[in-house]
From TrEMBL, chain A:
The keyword Methyltransferase does not apply. The keyword ATP-binding applies. GO terms for molecular function: ATP binding; ATP hydrolysis activity. This is ABC-2 type transport system ATP-binding protein. Gene3D superfamilies: P-loop containing nucleotide triphosphate hydrolases (3.40.50.300). PROSITE patterns: ABC_TRANSPORTER_1, ABC_TRANSPORTER_2. Residues 6-228 form the ABC transporter domain. It comes from the Bacteria. SMART domains: AAA. InterPro entries: AAA+_ATPase, ABC_transporter-like_ATP-bd, ABC_transporter-like_CS, P-loop_NTPase. It comes from Nocardioides szechwanensis.
Automatic annotation (TrEMBL), chain B:
This is Transport permease protein. GO terms for molecular function: ABC-type transporter activity. It is found in: Cell membrane. Keywords: Antibiotic resistance, Cell membrane, Membrane, Transmembrane, Transmembrane helix, Transport. Belongs to the ABC-2 integral membrane protein family. Its main location: membrane. The chain crosses the membrane at residues 24-42, 54-74, 95-124, 130-154, 161-180, 217-239. PANTHER family: MEMBRANE COMPONENT OF ABC TRANSPORTER YHHJ-RELATED, TRANSPORT PERMEASE PROTEIN. Pfam families: ABC2_membrane. It is a multi-pass membrane protein.
Length: 237, 244
């Protein structure tokens, strides 16, 4: 079995005439990997490149041994964008049933996904009547359909209740323990401690790539936010 | 293409429409009301309703489906659902044909109602077959769907999408032979009229009012159907799995 799930090499992406990622190299393996950095640092662009929906200027991205975005990967990656990306005029289960039919997975998967994101009590509610947090969980449920080998989640915990946020991180770890790779982005530094491995990102570059404990130890800091600041100040501008 | 996925799209679009009572009412009732208005306008003016009524039976479903389709697909692009679908095992044609079939079903219902009201209640005189008239109306509606899918690729907002109506639809209405017979137009306009799909749709309808021979109607229908396929193919070309 392959050790790494995602291999990025020399990835350059220019958006609106401005380079967002420049010659990025990265390897991501199993477990829960957190991609942390301030808003606008290129996290979403990197995630989109891994899913294969981002127009890439140069470099290669391979996922599970296939080029990112290629047809064999399309039912093996679960992807949650920052938009809710569900139909607001359909109920929670109608949304999930539709995406399940597209993926060719059974109705039992719909029930499993609804339970996993704790929306069983809202399963017949119209998506448009849900709160922002509930809506992002519907979107997450769609990504869980069919047990993908790679989950790419772009800020899935924004605006959620702390209890729910803890539950979701537990879910991410259960999914990773079952053998999948989970890649989660966040701009909230206190979520860093929940990851097996951490990628700190700033201005399109990865400034640290290690376990949370190792990053803190190397920077001589007690928390990730301080470590992030130390790394930024130590690096040449 | 995968029939399971295509039908999933069709089923989903139809359940969305079923939820949206106001849109559904507009789609089904409005063409009937407009035909009634037209009948009333020309009630005292002799056989004019019989002359232009069939042309409008071709034009109404075309306009309505063009608008509905361009706005709904644009919503799909801007809400992120299209990106999600294209990251899944969804073929571009699955998506477009799924939409075309769903709106084709609605168009068939709409046309049956509008033709039924026009022929049954308003006394529209048709020499040709009524079922053929309905078929022409359904193909016209599908044409509206195909062109709507295509232009939605060039609009960033729903606001812009609606503006494509005067750009794409109105010239076709002006040149389709409704206002001035196509052979009496200046040569240049006649030539332009010859390459616009709605002209053939209206020709087919007009033919049905004066003749019971179906040959020319089928010829016109083939031309309109070719435009539908071309519209879907162009629409597929504008769907991109990777975007900036």
């Amino acid at each position: 079995m392959m050790k790494s799930t995602v291999e990025v090499s020399g990835l350059t992406v220019v958006r609106g005439g401005r380079p967002v990622l420049t010659g990025l190299d990265l390897v991501i393996g199993k477990g829960v990997t957190g991609l942390l950095g301030p808003s606008g640092c290129g996290k979403s662009t990197l995630l989109r490149s891994i899913v294969g929906v981002q127009r890439v200027d140069s470099g290669t991205v391979s996922v599970l041994g296939e080029p990112a975005g290629s047809a064999p990967l399309r039912d093996r990656i679960g992807y949650v964008t920052q938009d809710s990306s569900v139909y607001l005029d359909l109920s929670v289960t109608e949304n999930l049933r539709f995406f399940a039919r597209v993926l060719g997975v059974g109705a039992d998967e719909v029930d499993r996904a609804v339970e996993a994101v704790d929306l069983t009590s809202h399963r017949d509610a119209l998506a448009g009547n849900l709160s922002g947090g509930q809506l992002s969980r519907v979107s997450l449920a769609v990504a869980l359909l069919g047990k993908p080998d790679l989950l790419v989640l772009d800020e899935p915990t924004v605006g959620l209740d702390p209890v729910l946020r803890r539950d979701l991180w537990e879910l991410f770890h259960r999914i990773a323990d079952a053998g999948a790779t989970v890649l989660v982005s966040s701009h909230v530094m206190d979520e860093a401690e929940r990851c097996d491995r951490l990628l700190l990102m700033r201005e399109g570059r990865i400034i640290a790539d290690d376990t949370p404990a190792a990053i803190k130890a190397a920077a001589g800091a007690d928390d990730i936010e301080t470590a992030f600041l130390a790394l930024v100040e130590a690096s040449p501008a | 293409m995968n029939p399971r996925i295509t039908m999933a799209v069709t089923g989903r679009v139809l359940s969305q429409l079923r939820r949206d009572h106001r849109t559904l009412a507009m789609l089904l009732v409005l063409p009937c009301l407009l035909m009634t208005l037209l009948w009333w306008m020309y009630n005292d003016s002799g056989p004019i309703f019989d002359r232009i009524g069939p042309a409008l039976l071709a034009i109404f479903p075309f306009i309505v489906m063009f608008l509905v389709t361009s706005v709904t697909t644009l919503r799909e692009r801007s809400s992120g659902t299209l990106e999600r679908l294209l990251a899944m095992p969804m073929g571009k044609l699955d998506f477009l044909v799924g939409y075309a079939v769903a709106f084709g079903v609605v168009a068939a219902l709409q046309s049956v109602l509008a033709v039924g009201v026009s022929v049954g209640l308003l006394g529209l005189e048709i020499v040709g077959h009524v079922w053929l008239l309905t078929l022409v109306a359904v193909v016209d509606a599908t044409l509206g769907t195909a062109l709507g899918l295509f232009v939605s690729a060039f609009a960033r907002t729903e606001f812009q999408a609606v503006q494509f109506m005067p750009a794409i639809v109105v010239p076709q209405i002006l040149l389709c032979g409704l206002l001035v017979p196509r052979d009496s137009m200046p040569d240049v306009l006649g030539a332009i009229s010859d390459v616009l799909p709605l002209s053939y749709a209206v020709d087919a309808m007009t033919h049905l009012t004066v003749s019971s021979s179906a040959g020319e109607v089928w010829g016109d229908l083939v031309v309109v159907a070719a435009f539908v396929l071309a519209g879907l193919a162009l629409g597929a070309a504008t769907l991109r799995r990777r975007t900036a």
